[in-house]
Every structure is written in structure tokens, then in C-alpha cells.
Design brief:
Length: 333
């Protein structure tokens, strides 16, 4: 019996060690990067001082080190080292990108925004059958990590079918986040141009925005009733896109910055459905696919409807010349 108990204990230790040290797709808050004491405190006391990051002496639910889970997330993800997701965000300035892969929230908690998802506020989910929802960080991300890219929940909508988004299969990156985190490492890893896409991001978005789950076909000469997603630019004839203009990447629609006084914005993001690695996922071609985040940022950003460019801004305002620039990248007339 002694040998059997020893075997069980040794086996348990081995499995735990393997779990903690093996890389998982979420990259952070998982494996060796999941440090319990970063987020939890047993008694909210250390040398007679509170352990909560907001210095409150009152213990928080589930032993958290902040008042609630979203405030806890934003304590780190609104600072200088972890990827910043709370406006104003300046960490990507000078990086060559206007924004991170997911953008940022305009407000903290309980305030509605026309430019980003709302945190901690009961809101109607647009283009959805879900009704109302109080959105938190953990509505979309698993704080304890999982096998999905960025720890995305497989079923953000409990009634949804479920969608996996796996790093190295559906999404690719050139530079992995630094461990331990550094500001420079976060900028390199999380800026938009470090990510290449193959599949499943639109399906994941439409877990909640389920009215857009399928492309509603139109009647000739219109291919679709709404702008489609996960459709190649050269998929239909006659084409509604200017394929040579898209591939060349020069002229009207294309630029180096968004919201300046010069027409043109950086190339919008696209999918490569045959990609096997980061390089292939970033290769421009006529069969690139438009998808949800070609036009929108998952968290939000500087512009209305979480768009990556100022389409809905007031006429003549800052960035007014970019109003149809992304449209012209594909549909140049």
C-alpha cells in the first residue's frame, strides 16, 4: 500500500507539473503564467495591510484582489506592462500600428459608449437574439486560461453552438508575449500587425451576434443582402471588388495612418483560409477573405461602432478624408 500511495502522489505531482509548465494556446493566465496570488488573496491581509489592489480592507467575492473581476482585469490591463485595453491607450504609439489586435474600451464600468463594447452595463446585444447582457471581461475570456487564442471562451453565448479559435491553427502570431511580461514585449506581441488570421474569428463573433451568423444572399446583380464575412474577394462573378487594386495596395484607400488629414488608411485585416503559418496568413492575394475584424475592433477603439476608421464621424471632422478609405481598398471605382 505504501508503494501504491507513493506512486499516486508522484503521478499527481508529475501531472500537475506538466500542466503548469506546458504551453497552452491562451499563452497567459495558464500554465506557468497562471499565478494564483496575482488575482486572489486568502485573507486580504499582509503585515496588517490590505492585499487588494484598491487598498480596501473589505474582502472581495471569490477572494479577488479587487472589487470585482472586471476591475481586477483592468487594474493590470490598464497599465504600462500588460496589454492596455482601457482608453486612453498610448503604448502602441511609434510601434508602426494604430492599435492592438482587439483595440480598447472607451470607459471603465457602467458607462455606455458608441465606440466600444460596454463593460458593467446592462445593454441590448446588437444583431443578436440574446436580449440584454451585462458584459464583463470574463464574458469573453477565461481568466484561468484554456486552449483558445487569447483565452477566448468557446461558448460566450451559453445557447450558442461553440467555436474554438486555436493559436497556430486558426490564428498565427510572429512574436509571442514575453514571460514575465514587459511593456516592450506586450507591444510587439499584441499590436495588430503581429497577428495573422485563417478562420473561425467571425464564427466566434457570431456566437453572440447570431443574426449575422450566415450571409443572407441577395438577388442579381446583388450578391448579398448585407456585407458578407468569410467570403473571398474573388468569389463571385461579376466581381464587386477591384482585385488588382487590393493586391497592389497603392493609391486611393491605402495610407500610413488613420484619422489624419491625408486620405487613406493602413490595409484592413483579412483572412487567408489556406494559411499554415504566420507568413502565409499575411500574404495578400485575390482570394483573401473579409471578416468581422476587417472593419471592427473586438474591444472597441477611436471611432463609432468600433470601426477601425472614422466612417461615422462628423463631416469635416478629424479623419473626414478617410470616410470611405477601407471601402476603396476593395471596391475602388
Amino acid at each position: 500500500m505504501g508503494k501504491l500511495k507513493t506512486f499516486h502522489v508522484a503521478g499527481t505531482i508529475f501531472l500537475l507539473a506538466a500542466y503548469l509548465t506546458s504551453p497552452r494556446a491562451g499563452e497567459f493566465h495558464t500554465g506557468e503564467t497562471m499565478v494564483c496570488s496575482d488575482c486572489h488573496t486568502m485573507h486580504n491581509s499582509q503585515n496588517n495591510s490590505p492585499m487588494r489592489y484598491d487598498s480596501s480592507p473589505t474582502p472581495a467575492p471569490t477572494l479577488l484582489r479587487h472589487a470585482d473581476s472586471t476591475s481586477l482585469c483592468l487594474y493590470c490591463h490598464g497599465s504600462v506592462t500588460a496589454p492596455d485595453v482601457l482608453a486612453p491607450v498610448t503604448m502602441y504609439s511609434g510601434s508602426g500600428d494604430d492599435y492592438s489586435g482587439a483595440g480598447f474600451f472607451e470607459y471603465h464600468l457602467g458607462m455606455g459608449s458608441s465606440k466600444s463594447h460596454d463593460l458593467g452595463l446592462s445593454s441590448s446585444v446588437p444583431l443578436s437574439t440574446m436580449g440584454t447582457l451585462v458584459l464583463t471581461c470574463s464574458s469573453c475570456h477565461d481568466p484561468h486560461g484554456n486552449d483558445n487564442y487569447r483565452n477566448l471562451l468557446t461558448k460566450p453565448n451559453p445557447s450558442g453552438a461553440g467555436t474554438t479559435v486555436v493559436l497556430g491553427t486558426d490564428v498565427f502570431e510572429e512574436v509571442a508575449p514575453a514571460n514575465p511580461p514587459t511593456r516592450e514585449g506586450s507591444i510587439k506581441a499584441y499590436k495588430s500587425s503581429n497577428i495573422g488570421y485563417k478562420s473561425n474569428m467571425s464564427s466566434w463573433c457570431t456566437e453572440c451576434h447570431d443574426i449575422l451568423a450566415s450571409n443572407e444572399m441577395g438577388s442579381a446583380p446583388t450578391h448579398f443582402m448585407r456585407h458578407p464575412s468569410d467570403v473571398a474577394l474573388d468569389a463571385y462573378s461579376p466581381s464587386r471588388t477591384n482585385l488588382s487594386h487590393w493586391v497592389e495596395g497603392k493609391g486611393e484607400g491605402f495610407g500610413t495612418a488613420t484619422g489624419d488629414t491625408t486620405e487613406g488608411v493602413p490595409r484592413v485585416r483579412f483572412q487567408v483560409p489556406t494559411a499554415r503559418n504566420f507568413t502565409e496568413a499575411k500574404t495578400v492575394s485575390p482570394n483573401n477573405e473579409v471578416f468581422c475584424i476587417s472593419c471592427h475592433l473586438a474591444h472597441g477603439g477611436n471611432y463609432q461602432k468600433a470601426l477601425v476608421w472614422p466612417f461615422r464621424e462628423s463631416a469635416g471632422g478629424v479623419g473626414g478624408k478617410d470616410m470611405i478609405s477601407p471601402c476603396q481598398q476593395c471596391h475602388f471605382q
